[in-house]
Amino acid sequence: MPHHSVSPLLSRRSFLRRSGLAGVAWGVAPAIVGLNRTFAAERKQGKLGVALVGLGGFSTMSIAPELPSAKNVYLAAVVTGDPTKKGREWAAKYGFPEKNIYNYETFDQIANNPDIDVVHVVLPNSMHAEFAIRAAKAGKHVMCEKPMAISSAQCHSMIEAARTAGVQLGMSYRLHFEPHHQEMMRLAREKTYGEVKGIMAEFSWRRRDNKPWLLDRAMAGGGALFDTGVYPIQAGCYITNEVPVRASALATSTRDVYSPGVEETMSFTLEFPGGAVMSGRASYAHAAHQLTVAGETGVFACTPGPTGGSVFGQSSRGNPNPKQVVLPQNKTFKRDDTLQLAVLHDEFAAAIREQRPFAYPGEMGLRDVQIVEALYASVAQNGKVVIVKT
Length: 390
Description:
Shape: globular
Helix content: 25-40%
Order of helices and strands: HHEHEHEEHEHEHEHHHEEEEEEEHHE
Radius of gyration: 20 Å
Number of strands: 15
Distance between the termini: 35 Å
Number of helices: 12
């Protein structure tokens, strides 16, 4: 068996069946209504072609509906475990030729396809490293979903593969392009309310019994921390513009379905060199989204919009996920242009074209996995404070 073969346990089709996403319905996204640009026209305009690897819920509901609004990229190809049916449906929907449909076994043939410039890896966590490395060896630039991989060793291998191939490896850290999170960063950076002293961040959702693959440590890498916990970790780093130096954590589970190493809830603390301390949490036991920053002279927070939304959530069917920033003295900051994925791809394409490093590279993904590993190390030592090694 070739070294890049995908085992039945970790195949995308197996993942879809186990997670209940195999038959997910498609909606017509507002972003693509009236789309009449042809595939050839997109290429002629000098846009870079993107291949989505994995056509699960995130690709279907968030990435693909946003790409038609991008200025520098377009959807050029897909990689799926069901090329005959699903692949052809995507080709018809998004207007790319059927020759640009691949499965996981034929994936390496993308090396011979000039339509594809960027490969976006949208697979279960344990498959990120394999397909990012294969994409780099095929000479394609790589955009990777979070978490970058399930170990820092895998992250290092991905970075080295991209470096050897001379391609860019970027992280899909979309919130760096979201205006409300950008405003939170600005307020902290400019010390509008003094030095940041405390951060409270949580991204939790009630899993119930859906997405059973998240209970498989081999596929997920861990529990809630490895799933949504990466977002609070990211928030702590981009609010302080620092990397934490010390970490402690406590993992808890209230149901027998969660086995050792796959926690239901992770509560953690990160200490930053400038003095800020962050309290974070990721959980499958309840739904809660929070990003609150305490400065010396005031508190500001990113919250859902007046009519709902999620602090860390993405778009759905091309519709923005509403947010706002609540400021002292009952002031608010509100923007409607909250689509993030098209902007992220545009910026990645600009970096490729201009031959400059992308601002959110694989090294940042490695850093976050190293922080996750420090938190798990703390759990293994009954919550002892450990040094974060990055």
